[in-house]
Structures are given as structure tokens and as C-alpha cells.
Amino acid sequence: MSLLVLAAPLASALQLGSSMIGSSSRAGAVTMIDKSKVIKDKPVWVSMVSASEVKPGTITSGFQYGIEVAIVCDDKGQLSGFSNKMPPTGQPTTFATIEGKKLVEPVTLTEYDIKSGKQLGTWCPSPIGRLIIGRITTPQDLQPYKVRKQGANIQALINVNAKAQFEQKYWRGILDSQGKVDGGYY
Q1: pLDDT tens-place string over residues 77-90
Q2: Model pTM score
Q3: For the domain 45-158, what is the CATH superfamily, name and number?
Q4: Going along 19-107, which residue ranges are E strands?
Q5: How far apart are CA 156 and CA 62, in angstroms?
Q6: Could you tell me the residue ranges of all domains in the chain?
Q7: Which of 35, 56, 95, 109 is surrounded by the fewest CB atoms within 10 Å?
Q8: Phi and psi for 111 in degrees, rounded to 5?
Q9: Alpha helices in 39-185 (DSSP H)
Q10: Cα dihedral angle (75, 80, 82, 86), rounded to 10 degrees?
Q11: Distance, CA of 45 to chain centre
Q12: How far is C-alpha 164 from the chain's CA centre?
């Protein structure tokens, strides 16, 4: 009999909780983002590094608006810009080596075109690349950015709203992830 007495409050709590979870009044109670107000791309030329830092045959990086751009200066002084995160391992592009008209990723030795970022040759040709990484990943290109020399700076054309766009898809409000309020996550 004492077990039944202890179980009764638990059963009523479960019934109360299940009716609250299933109620539609809770799902629509909190709405912080208006779906009609989508943040648009806003490409802007942004100064990333001083031109004096960029020497022929080097890779330098700059960070602005939550985006890190690697500025590649080939042996002839031509500039290219890429994300400072190389596939497939996520190594910084600044760790890559410049070999003629190619960038070589340091771990897997995957080669990329220095102008376009397109993957060249064999995907993950190093021993560790062939045995492990190349089997679990698919070939990918580097993400390119337009870069230019403007005065004493090197600028990159970046989307200054990228961080806000990412956060809009994920966050609804303070300490709340998308779908937590309306059950869309589950």
C-alpha cells in the first residue's frame, strides 16, 4: 500500500507533464525571430592585412567579421585568397606550402590550384591520407575569396553578415537553440 501511495503523485505528474508537452499554447509562446526578416548577404571589401606583411612566396592571414582569410602571394607577387581552413583536415591554409602554381595541404599532401582553389591530382596521396582520411572524406575544393591590394592594405571581399546569418539559423534567443521552444529539434 505504501508503494501505491508513493506512485500516485508520480503518475499525476507524468500526466500533467505530458499534457503540457503536447499543448499547442507552449509551442507558440516564444517567438523571437520573424522568419520574414532573413538577413541578406552583404559583400564588402575589408582590409585584412598590411601590404608590407605580404611577400612573394608567402601565405598570410587576416581575421575580420568572424571570417579568417588566407592571402597567398605566389613567387610572381600575384594574390589569391582562400578560407584559412583546408579540407580535409581543417589545417590552416597558412601551414600549406606553395609549390609552383599549387598549394599543398601539410597532412594529406592534397594539392590545390593557387588561383581557383580547385583540388588537383590524387585526393589525400600521403600514407595517412590514403589509409584513413581519404577513405572517410570526399574531394573538396578550397573556398576562394577575392582579394586586392588597395593602398597600403590587402583587402578581401567578404560577407560581413555571415556570422549573423549563421546565428539566425541557430539561435532564437539567449540560451535557446533552434527548435527547443517549439519541439522542431526533436
Answers
A1: 999 999 999 999 99
A2: 0.70
A3: Rieske [2Fe-2S] iron-sulphur domain (2.102.10.10)
A4: 43-50, 58-64, 67-73, 79-83, 97-99, 102-104
A5: 9
A6: 45-158
A7: 35
A8: -105, 145
A9: 127-128, 134-136, 162-170
A10: -30
A11: 20
A12: 13
